[in-house]
Amino acid sequence: MDFKNLLYSLACMAFTVVIGGAVYEHAAVVPQWSAAPPQSLSMFQGDYGLKAETFWIWIHPVTLLLLFATLATSWKSARRNAVLTTLGGYLLVLAVTATVFVPELIAITTTSFSETVDADLVARASWWETASQIRMVFLMGLGLVLFNGLTKSGESRS
Description:
By secondary structure, the protein is mainly α. Helices cover 72% and strands 0% of the residues.
């Protein structure tokens, strides 16, 4: 396997890990914390609370680095558009995540524990979950674009 194909494969793997993390959180974590906030937010609190950001803080830079490197090595090949589309879409997702999703998630999940369910928090959590599922489906589409690039030649065009 040559270096360009290996790099492209590693970029695909990293992007798949991002999607896998999103799918896992939406299947196992989000339904729990969004069920009845602030009561259901206890999973984030205390010394042993869930710290999902530990995963996201390292996977995004690794994925971006691999995508940028793959773009550089694929610039003159038929794979360029797939990598460029995926990278551009991913940067857009990260910008929206940083400006919309993360601040709202922090605002919701840092709410003090209470035995009483807060209808406003339930509505905000529901909006966040729905919008995040749309973001996840968009990432899946980008993943298909990236993987489709593997069907293109990695050799430089004349």
